[in-house]
Design a protein that fits this description.
The protein is an alpha/beta fold. Helices cover about 25% and strands about 20% of the residues.
């Protein structure tokens, strides 16, 4: 016997099974903690609901004896803990049921919001701190912001903390940090511009620094703070305390920014983590095999999706990946993973435990990030075996996500490009022109591909030479810093790419397309705009 789906209503959880009508069953719910280091499922000989331990050490929240009604088993949703985010186990007929383990569907009345996620008018944008004049000149239709769990959560009680209640408990949020994000997102919301959010866990970066003891509670227990290049930690789902902090933080964000009509801003999509296939740098969980890493990550992604649906049905969560697809950024399989493996394993995990619609936020930078002319990349191939996916062969992503084993109920998963840029090298003034032309070609490729949702430039203004590895990926040149913490660069002169962006989807586009064809080379430009089919041979 199997669990086919689990639906969450306003007050109930309904588990759909193939248990005969009138038969007895036992339903248990657990805090979905995970110990990815233990790979074997517990052996249960009696068919009784297992006690927490081993791979799934989370506390048992309830155990209910239920009579099947045409295969449906219904229990209360909340008895001191919201079972929306629980892991379920069902026993009947002397054995445990296989199949779905988490909520997959929602009953009428679950969410107070009935508004569908609207279409984004123009899927171009950059970071949310861009000047108003640039947002208007380039007609940006979506922007980007990064929210840090370690900074948002208040590690000590302050009189002006913002209070948010989740699961019956009060959680405190740092007003200074929250209102800084509000100042950007609310301004965009008033313009009707949504913000793609990226959820990260970073101890310190320029303006804010989390208390070390508090950060230890919420960072992954494998986090390698002794590694010089580490930037961010993976989510910690090993303890109930850190699980609660993670869920409360997400619930606060979705309540504030995903709720229709919110005065603080509007969001429809969130990345969980950053470039997780380069985990040692951007999503550090210590040494882990890829399958164990993704097993754990899949739960973090699922929890975000479940919590988001309370406030905005159809809200999307994405896995964030850098450009390495069938190779690793560094040849270290316990810290760096192949993007293709990450997505394949993620799809297997979510299909096994109850699938939901997640997408991919990819960063298809040029092969050599210092050079903007991605059209001259040598590694990209139009094949599912390609080593990398840059803007040159971006068509590989939609082809891969449409595979049956990756898709969601036969519907291809979607990809968006929420971080890429065109570096302007100090030693090569011509890179400014190359970057503008490269953008034109890349945008045309995105626009003609229905499987790609948006295109966001890395940043609005270059940082100083000592920051961001010396790269100049902004739309404007660096004009100094506005603040002593080197957080907000003052906008310098606009680069030529700004005019190229402004020309797209306007009467000036044809002129710019012809200019880019001439600079890139007509034959090369046209060949990349009409690429060969993606080959499906896989190694």
């Amino acid at each position: 016997m199997t669990i086919q789906s689990i639906a969450c209503g306003k007050n109930t959880i309904t588990i759909k099974t193939d248990i005969p009508d009138g038969a007895n069953a036992t339903v248990a719910a657990f805090v979905p903690l995970i110990n990815a280091e233990e790979r074997e499922e517990a052996v249960v000989l009696s068919g009784a609901i297992p006690e927490p331990g081993g791979r799934f050490p989370g506390r048992k929240l309830c155990e209910e004896d239920v009579v099947s009604k045409n295969g449906s088993l219904t229990i209360p949703r909340n008895d001191g803990f919201d079972l929306l985010v629980a892991r379920f186990c069902v026993s009947a007929g002397g054995g445990l049921l296989s199949g779905v383990k988490y909520v997959t569907d929602f009953l009428p009345g679950f969410s107070e919001c009935a508004e569908p996620v609207p279409e984004i008018s123009r899927p171009l944008g950059t970071w949310c701190i861009a000047p108003d004049e640039d947002i208007e000149y380039m007609r940006f239709g979506v922007m980007m912001d990064e929210l840090d769990e370690a900074w948002l959560l208040a590690n000590e009680e302050r009189p002006d903390d913002i209070i948010h209640v989740w699961n019956g408990r009060e959680y405190r949020f740092n007003r200074e940090v929250v209102e800084l994000h509000d100042s950007f997102l609310s301004k965009l919301g008033r313009k009707g511009i949504p913000t793609l959010l990226r959820f990260i866990n970073r101890k310190n970066y320029q303006l804010f620094e989390a208390d070390d003891a508090f950060f230890r509670k919420i960072c992954h227990p494998g986090y390698e703070d002794d590694f010089e290049g580490v930037e961010m930690s993976a989510v910690n789902l090993r303890t109930e305390e850190s699980f609660n902090y993670y869920c409360a933080c997400l619930d606060f964000i979705f309540c504030r920014y995903a709720s229709p009509g919110s005065p603080y801003g509007v969001s429809y999509i969130m990345d969980i983590g950053n470039e997780i296939n380069s985990a040692r740098i951007w999503h550090n969980a210590g040494k882990m095999e890829c399958d164990a890493f993704i097993e754990e990550y899949s739960v973090a992604l699922r929890l975000a999706w479940l919590l988001s649906q309370k406030y905005r049905p159809g809200y999307r969560v994405d896995v964030s990946l850098e450009l390495n697809f069938t190779k690793r950024f560094v040849d270290d399989p316990l810290h760096y993973y192949k993007g293709r493996d990450c997505v394949s394993l993620l799809a297997a995990c979510t299909k096994r435990d109850g699938d939901f619609f997640w997408g991919v936020s990819a960063h298809p930078y040029p092969e050599v990030i210092e050079n903007p002319d991605f059209y001259n990349d040598t590694l990209p191939e139009f094949s599912l075996d390609t080593k990398i996916i840059s803007m040159k062969n971006m068509e590989v992503w939609p082809a891969f996500l449409s595979l049956q084993e990756i898709s969601f109920n036969g519907v291809p998963r979607r990809v968006l490009f929420d971080e890429q840029g065109f570096n302007t090298r100090a030693d090569d003034p011509d890179t400014e022109v190359k970057g503008a032309c490269a953008f034109i070609l890349a945008y045309l490729k995105v626009r003609q591909n229905p499987g790609i949702d948006m295109f966001l430039i890395n940043r609005d203004v270059d940082l100083g030479d000592a920051d961001e590895y010396g790269l100049r990926l902004g739309l404007r040149y660096f004009g100094g810093y506005k603040d002593r913490n080197h957080i907000f660069p003052a906008p310098g002169r606009r680069k030529l790419i700004c005019d190229a962006i402004a020309a797209t989807d306007s009467e000036k586009e044809a002129e710019w397309v012809e200019f880019a064809r001439e600079k890139i080379g007509r034959e090369l430009f046209d060949s990349l705009l009409t690429p060969p089919p993606v080959t499906s041979a896989r190694s």
